[in-house]
Description:
Blueprint: H1 6-11, E1 17-21, H2 28-41, E2 45-50, H3 56-60, E3 71-72, E4 83-88, H4 91-102, H5 105-112, H6 115-123, H7 127-146, E5 151-155, H8 164-176, H9 179-189, H10 192-210, H11 212-224, H12 231-244, E6 248-254, H13 258-273, E7 278-286, H14 296-309, H15 314-342, E8 348-352, H16 361-372
Parallel strand pairs: 1-5, 1-6, 2-4, 2-5, 6-7, 7-8
Antiparallel strand pairs: 3-4
Amino acid sequence: xxxxxxxxxxxxxxxxxxxxxxxxxxxxxxxxxxxxxxxxxxxxxxxxxxxxxxxxxxxxxxxxxxxxxxxxxxxxxxxxxxxxxxxxxxxxxxxxxxxxxxxxxxxxxxxxxxxxxxxxxxxxxxxxxxxxxxxxxxxxxxxxxxxxxxxxxxxxxxxxxxxxxxxxxxxxxxxxxxxxxxxxxxxxxxxxxxxxxxxxxxxxxxxxxxxxxxxxxxxxxxxxxxxxxxxxxxxxxxxxxxxxxxxxxxxxxxxxxxxxxxxxxxxxxxxxxxxxxxxxxxxxxxxxxxxxxxxxxxxxxxxxxxxxxxxxxxxxxxxxxxxxxxxxxxxxxxxxxxxxxxxxxxxxxxxxxxxxxxxxxxxxxxxxxxxxxxx
Length: 375
């Protein structure tokens, strides 16, 4: 398989956005932070946006708390002229900013104080992914206006499926612009005489399902939101177009496990179908080579012979551990080869498994260095 040249990717100033994506638990946050740090220390003006509830990025970067505002990362080597800011997505605050930017102050107040909006902006399925794309769009517009950044690194939400990042914004915008919402807002548009009979049946049924108070909250919300209909879909489409632009590069992150590589394969295929620029694949937590000619079968045979003479043989136990490790390495190699066979053109970088968690900039530098050194 071709090798992913990390430094060439980071040094290419025509690349303005790097999106690290993949299923949950594969190391996207650490990969994003490591790439952002290396880019900054090679001279880029970088901001990294994380959507990680565990807040490991803040800890690794020596920042007490990340929030919706980019903050400088201390102790970054700026000798090459670069800089690094970091931020963590606050999806409700980002949603509030969209409302405040699109509606009049009075209408914005009605929306922001509505109980249905509070629930929608905090926990509705797809909101986090939608707001991640919204914040990306905001950062990109800011960078174009004031030149504050020349590279944005995005750590996508820790979704069960990697595809949620691309699919959820469409689902949310379709919901906000859908038939049911438009039906509920219709009484505010009139004419009432034409709408009353049909709506009375619908609202009566919805009232029984949702409860009267919740239905009133929904109706109040969508009435206040009437001026924003269409803007959610339009903004999602604009950011989707940004993700398709040549200035964007997707880095798919996976671990050497069947489910993670299967998700990575789905995502690579989806990026190809949607004409989005794929830079390559990072496979994290790869088991290091056993560096021995002793096969798993030979080790097991030797262990069984030793146990026949001494059931408590330490050497037999060590041989069994060696056999288990070799089998893990062989399984991972088989999985990587199978992915490469179905996606032979995808450049790949391997990141060996680390002995412990990464908790500082030195650890991130080491990861970035290993990813860059694939020779």
